[in-house]
């Protein structure tokens, strides 16, 4: 199942699939560059799940990227990167991963990345305890610019 | 003219271009030229004193610069300087070391104090510093010079046997407590005199430890600590303090304690240049830059070090927040330096984000772990 098929097989988000990066809001989109990959589509997860899960710590976006082997799903959170935001972002990640095991199961099979795009200065370094906490949850170190 | 030093085509250095801050940090893998840089910086600042001192100790280089380098940098370094190719510029102006060495001594006071990486070798097994002429002519000048300065300092000191050493009013009780807690672990440095012979021992916990049973960290730290003791009064003639590998033998808590003493040196008006392999040192520099930019509270600075608030410690913290810090990476691939002072963890420049390679391994480990865990439970 490719990325588009997976989105369409997921009732809670299928109506929100957009071409290219169109689902990504301006603050995130200006921080994403497409150089090597071909973008298959994107979904504003926060908006798509707002009605069904109004009180959940919802993740921001998902983008499908075509690579030579398989489609890769890039889960993107656009957020400030002060150290006191770490727990907030991790809460969203844990909620997303729970959703992928339940209502979002069709989206759970592709190779994937969990990416944090920083909207502010990153206030901790690689190798630090906060950075290791992210890695242990499967989240990449925050970037100011994501290159796909 | 700002304080800047450029070295070209010297040993492993293709071009090192360092514009100093109040505090300057040099990072980079082994054998990239950091130590050579610091020693040649001292030569630039103090060539007259160095020439005079070597001369007074009967050491002769026959007006040949390669022979001088063997005496100054140490045996096997004569080829580092390539005549016609090597170059030094201090504050934008050429500095001709060959000419300076031939021209010889001058009356200028010594401007810098260098604490060498090999400081542990400056101690004899008797617990006392070795005199200048106890070394071989091919041993680096900066080790011999540091050793001799420490020996003179301690011999001139009229401290009483059995007391805390050094009895230094500049070292406030808060800083003593910090060093005791972080490094000496309840031991204290004491001067012991048996007959005519003085020596340093570590006392406390009902014990009496001579030099040969000190831990590696204690052996490394004591010469550094006594170097600070010399500088803290402060010494009028020295403007620059150059420290090689500040962290040698120290746990990160000890590194933080020593860094606080560096802040004391800055407060005393010295400019400090340090080479390091410790990410903890860059953690501290990074935090200070952000605290300075965001008008941080001096009390918060003290909380980093777990130092109590007194008028003296608050003054140190307040001053630290006004000082500039620069960080330079000695790149082994290009042989050039790169200014990574911004220390942005999210910088696309790998050298800056990885803090000159100091966090590269831990960063790579985290990347691999994140990728594995992200995909580990896919359906």
| Cα shape of chain A | globular
Helix content of chain B: 40-55%
Oligomeric state: heterodimer
Give helix and strand order of chain B, one letter per element, not per position: EEEHHEEHEHHEEEHEHEHHHEEHH
Order of helices and strands of chain A: HEHEEHEEHEHE
Q: Tell me about the largest β-sheet of chain B.
A: 6 strands, mixed
Q: List low-confidence stretches of chain B.
A: none
* Total of domains of chain A: 1
- Strands of chain A, total number: 7
- Largest protein interface, residues of each chain: A-B, 35 and 30 residues
Description:
The complex is a heterodimer of chains A (148) and B (379). Chain A has 5 helices and 7 strands, in the order H-E-H-E-E-H-E-E-H-E-H-E. Chain A has 148 residues and is α/β, with parallel strands linked by helices. Chain A has one domain (3-35, 42-147). In chain A, the strands form 2 sheets. In chain A, strands 1-3-4-5-6 form a 5-stranded mixed β-sheet. A two-stranded parallel ribbon of chain A has the order 2-7. In chain A, helix 4 (86-100) links the parallel strand 5 (71-79) and strand 6 (112-118). By secondary structure, chain B is α/β, with parallel strands linked by helices. Chain B folds into 2 domains: 4-343, 3-Layer(aba) Sandwich (Rossmann fold), CATH 3.40.50; 344-379. A 6-stranded mixed β-sheet of chain B has the order 6-10-11-3-12-13, with helices on both faces. Chain B has a 4-stranded antiparallel β-sheet with strand order 2-1-4-5, with helices on one face. In chain B, strands 7-8-9 form a 3-stranded antiparallel β-sheet, with no helix packed on it. In chain B, helix 9 (298-305) crosses helix 10 (311-320). Classes of the chains: A alpha/beta (148), B alpha/beta (379). Chains A and B meet through strand 6 and helix 5 of A and helix 8 and helix 12 of B.
